[in-house]
Structures are given as structure tokens and as C-alpha cells.
Amino acid sequence: MKAIVCEGLGDARSPLGTGCLALKELPEPKLPDGHVRVQVAAASLNFPDALQIKGGYQDKPKLPFIPGSEVSGVVTEVASGVKSLRVGDKVCAVRQTGAFAEQAVVPAPAAWRVPEGLALEDAAAIPIVYGTADVSLRHRAQLKPGQTVLVLGAAGGVGVAALQLAKLAGARVVAVAGGAAKADFLRGQGADAVVDSEAAAAAKTPLHKAIKQAAPKGVDVVFDPVGGSQLFEALKCVAWGAQYLVIGFASGDIPKVPANLLLVKNTTMHGVFWGSYMMHQPRVLADSMRQVLEWFGQGKLRVEVFARFPLERVTEAFQVILDRRVRGKVLLTMAPRARL
User: Fold this and answer.
1) Does domain 129-275 have CATH number 3.40.30.10?
2) Other Cβ atoms closer than 10 A to 143
3) What is the mean pLDDT of residues 49-78?
4) What class, spelled out in words, does domain 2-126+303-333 have in CATH?
5) What is the percent of the chain where pLDDT is above 70?
6) Using CA atoms, how far apart are residues 193 and 127, in angstroms rounded to an integer?
7) Overall pTM > 0.85
8) What is the band of 332 on the pLDDT scale with cuts at 50, 70, 90?
9) GO MF terms on file (predicted)?
């Protein structure tokens, strides 16, 4: 099978075969008990994939490894002990690494049937971002109708998922992103208010003041995949008793949280690492994925795919993500085409 292999840590945008990523022909992976083999239709790129290739993520697989953690495709083989899936099932699935390949072997509990009416390629974009957003908003923040949710980095994959799920829950959404194109995109996604961080900076308006203009009574929930200085700006905008969801650090800066600000507003801060639920609270994750996929089947959620690249153009796909141009998700497909 063809696969992208990380042979050395570095910039995921570097050309293939220059010491970081390479396209290789590999033997098909073994199929342990309790697993299924998936013929991959598409793999989803996430910002942590680039961090992992660079050596800057908390999970550090031993070199060499196949990057990627999210796929969609068709089950072609089922190992002993698997009763939930059959050969021929269309699934989306996750694993720690190994997604950027024509085949993926995944634990059966980490594969979910794709509902009718949802394009199989697009389903690769669902588990991590929609799973993270749903567990964060419904399970951790206990989001209620009528509350105000502030979504930072709202034009990225997980930000769009949070926006859609918050609106589905009956919340008011204030979305933050940089640039007019992203701002227009978020309005089209149904955000109640959009804060263009680039426009605010150009006008010398502190970000927290721009957010307060959109939410003068404060925000009840903050969904933050960005970190850095935006965390401090967002904390200045919370209402009393707010829930702050720490999702990631796309800014590249891990901030030190001023505990006094949490105390003054009785703010609860949650760290949300969706993948760890598979080990510690698998039922929560399973129930969340069941609900998310049900909503997709009902047409209440929709995948926003910004670009599709064939496997051999993976470095171009990472270029789009790391240049902050993405509005939605980027997919690697196993068919020889690219669409922007």
C-alpha cells in the first residue's frame, strides 16, 4: 500500500523526500484481534498532525511513523472478536497514527458507520473536530439554550464544528477569526456576531473590547483552540460562572493562566483532550459520536471541506493549514485529484 511516512522530525510543508515526509510503498498492516481493516477513501488533516511531525505534540510516536489519525472508508476485513461491524460497512474512524495511507487498521470501538446521505470522503472530517466540540459543549460545559458562546479560531475545522453544535443547542455564538474572507464565511455559517481580529488590530481596538461590543453582558462559554494572547483577551469577556474550554494552542503559545481572573468571575476552566476519553470514559465518547452522526444523518450538521489533495500532495495540504488559510477542513484523498 502507498503511505506517507514521517522519517524525521521537521516542517510538514517541506517537499516529500527531503528528510521529513516521504511517500512509500509498504506492506499492508497486520490485523490484530478486535480490529478492522479499512480501505481508506480519505484522511483528514488536523493542526496537531503538523505539530506531531515537528515533534511539538504531547504524543510523540517513535520514528518512522505514518502520520494522521482520522479516516473514512470501507471495511474490507474484520478480525476475531468484532461484532459491531461487517465487511462492506462504510465507516469513519480514528487511531493514534497511521491515517495517511491507502489502508488503516483501527480498533472496532473507534470506527463508526457513516449515515446515509453523507459523502464517504467528507466523513473523514467528522470524528475529532465534531467529537471534541460536542464533548466540550454538551458534556463539559453543559451548554444551555440562550447562553452565549465565544468561539476563538472559529474558521478552522474544530471552530466550525463548535459553531454548528452551539447553534444546534440554541446558543448565541460570537465567532472570532482573522480576515474578511473568514469573517464572511462565519456569517454564512450562522454566527450571530463575528469579530475580525485582524480588523480590530488594524483599528487599534483591543480584542476583548471588540468581543464585548458583540456580547456586552459577557459570554457564558469560551471555546478556545487558539491559546496565546487570545486566552487573556477572552477571559476579560466572561460572564459570572462562565465555562472556559481549553481545546488547543494553534497560536503556538501555551499561556500561563492568571488564577485570579478565574476567581473573580467564578469561572471554571476545562482542559479537553478528546482522544483520552477512549481510555477513561469510552461510553461518553461513544454516546457523543452516536449523537453527532445521528445529527449528520438528519441533515442538522454539515461538513465544510475547504480543500482536497491526493496523498502525494500532502505537503501542499499542510501548507494550506499552516498558512492559516483554511475555512473548514482539509482532506487527503486516495484518488488522484486536488480541489481548492
Assistant:
1) no
2) 24
3) 93
4) alpha beta
5) 98
6) 27
7) yes
8) very high
9) oxidoreductase activity; zinc ion binding
